[in-house]
Amino acid sequence: MADLAFDPKAVEQLSPPLVTGQPSLHEVTEAVSIHTELETHRNWYIALAISGSITLLLGSMLAYLISTGIGVWGNNNPVGWGWDITNFVFWIGIGHAGTLISAILFLFRQKWRTSINRFAEAMTLFAVACAGIYPLVHVGRPWRAYWLFPIPNADLAMWQNFRSPLLWDVFAVSTYATVSALFWYVGLIPDLAIIRDRATTKLRHTIYGIASLGWRGSATHWKNYEKAYMILAGLSTPLVLSVHTIVSFDFAVSIIPGWHTTIFPPYFVAGAIFSGFAMVITLMVIARWVFKVEHLVTMTHLENMNKVILATGTIVGYAYATEFFIAWYSGNEYERFTFINRAMGPYAWAYWSMVSCNVISPQFFWFKKLRTNIPFMFVLSIFVNIGMWFERFVIIATSLHRDFLPSSWGYFRPTIVDILTFFGTFGLFITLFVFFTRFLPIIAVSEVKGMMIQTEHEKHYLPATTAGSPESVKAH
Amino acid sequence: MADHSSIHGVVADFASPDTLLDAVKAARAQGYTRMEAYTPFPIHGIDEAMGAKPSILGYIVLCGSATGFTTAVLLQWWTGTIAYPLVISGKPLFAFEFGFPVMFELTVLLSAFAAVFGMLGLNGLPRLSHPIFNYSGVAGSSDDRFLLVIEASDKKFDANATKDFLASLGAEKLEVVEA
Question: Closest by alpha carbon to A419, among A395, A401, A380, A393?
Answer without folding.
Answer: A393
